[in-house]
Structure formats: structure tokens, C-alpha cells
Amino acid sequence: MKTRVVRYLRSGLIALLAVGIAAYVRRVPWTPVLGAVRHASIGLLALALCFHWIALTGKAGIWWTFLKALGGPCFTTVARGTLVGATLNSLFVGSSGEAGRVLLMSRLTGIPSASVLSTVVLERAVDLVGFLTLLAWAALLFPIPHAATVGACVTVGLVAVIAGAQRWRACHASPHRLDASESRSLTVRCRRYVLSVFASTRDIATPRRVTIAIGLTLLDWCSEWISYSLVARAAGFPIGMRGSLLALLAVNVGFLVRVTPGNVGVFELVYATVAHSLGLPYEVAIGVALMLHLVQDVPTALLGLSLGLRFFSREAPSSARTRPPLAQPSVVMNAPSSTVPHAEPARGTWS
What we know:
By secondary structure, the protein is mainly α. It is about 70% helix and about 0% strand. Helix 3 crosses helix 6 and helix 4 crosses helix 12.
């Protein structure tokens, strides 16, 4: 029964997605779009792709900085995992790439998935800091609406308060005791998993690592900004650096959750709206947004799919790599003669 329901839901989602894509394709003004694509400069588009890959390298550097604290793999493996995650994000809805990265890296290295998830959480938090920093720069350099500036300041304040509260709670929390008879319930296991993620996050996020990660995320965002500007110049679209910055910030407001695969449709709509607000033609802006998708997502997806197939087809060795002990949440079991491990066992390494 459950299998049939899942099959029906999957078929319904696929049909809904197909209908949405068909409706989107019918509403695209193809004449100006194809005109913008046909007259684009190939050299500038190739340079824009290079800057997009520099941005992905910056993301990989952030993740690698946090994974090193867990005895993680070499940088090339982390970079390939980042590329696979970007591919999953461009092919599926939501943040599928983040879950895929956690499963992939845990399988390759034998690091517990809770610890790997904590590094991804830290990376996304640093990414948010980079976004807010770029928004602050834009507020100083360009006449951005006052409401956006106030919203950014409020968000920064909330992030600081949440981080301070979490740090205070970690320093003053007392060990929580669980009954051994309840240790196998789903609620307790989920709670222990979340506590393990928070414990790893606390120990990994040292000031030195966070400082390095913030520098890399600024490299990431600035490279994406340059990539946006180069694609517009390649199409002869006079949006300029200011307009490219505004478009980058606007299309990444919902960067935590993608409502369509690769944000197709939503991305073009937001980009064209920003360009139209600057007095530029709406139809040509949609063509430039489509070129951004073609330049950034298609080569990345093709390369990520090839690397993903190689990763998942590789068998993990039978012996696990010796790693430094990981921080565990302060959960104590009332079991007189047995202990319950706080981390899942290693599942092999990758070399």
C-alpha cells in the first residue's frame, strides 16, 4: 500500500513538473531571447564560466576548512563532492545537494553523518554571512531601498543573538540523563542525532576556521558577481556592475530553499524584474538569465554527474581510517553495564 502511494505521489510530482515546464516554455518570448543568445560573445561567456568555477572552489574551500577538524579527506575530494552537490541542486527541488553531500562524504570517509552535517550547517551559515556582507556593501555603494538595509541589519542582529544564545547554552547546559529503556525510540534517537550535530558544530567552529571561511565566502560571492556581469556584457546587455549586484542579491534571497529544479523560472523572473526596474527591456533580460543558467549550470551538471557516478560506484574499503575522537553531546544513559555509542560506526574510507 505504501509503495503504491509513493509511486502515485512520484508520478503526480513528475506530471506537475512537466506541466510547469511546458507553461514556462510557452510564456518565454523566444525571439528576443534567441537574438540575445545568438549575438553573445563566446570568450566572455567562457570567462564567466571560469569565475563561476572559482566561486565553487571557494565553497569547496569553506567545506574543507571545517572537514579538516574531523580528519576529513583531501581538498580534491571535497571539491568533487561540492560539485556533485551543486549538480543535485540544479536537478532537483529544495536543497537536495546538501543532503547528497552529507551522504556522499560520510560514505567516502567513514565520518559519522552527524559530524558531516555539522560542517554543511556551518558552511551555509558562513554563506549567509557572505550574503549579508555583500548586501551591506551594496547599501553603501548603491542607492538600495532603506527597507532592505533595515532588514539586513535586523537579520545580522538575529544571527548574532542566536549564536550568542547557543554558545551560552552550550557553556551552561548540564548533562541530560535518558532512561536506557527509551534509548531505542525514534524520538530519542532523533534528539541524540541533533545533539550530536550541535556538539560537533560547537567544536569545529573555532575563530580561526570561521575567519578563513568568511574570507573564502567573500571570494565566492564576488566571483559570482563578476560572472553575472560578464554574461550580461557578453550579450550586450547594459545592466552594469550595479545592476548585476542587485540581480545577484535578489535571486539569492531564497537561496536556502529552491522551489523548482535549479530555480528555473523563478531565477529568470526575478532577474528580469530587477533589470526592468532599472529601465531595461524585460524580454532581453529573460534571455540573459537563460544564458546565465546555460553557462553556469549545464557544464557544472555534466561534470558533476560524471564525478557522481564515479563516486557512488566506488566500493568502500573494509578497514576504517583512524580518526581523532569527535565531540559528543552531553547525554548520559542510565545503563548499569552497557554503553551506547554516540556516533554511528565508520563505514569505510576512500583513498
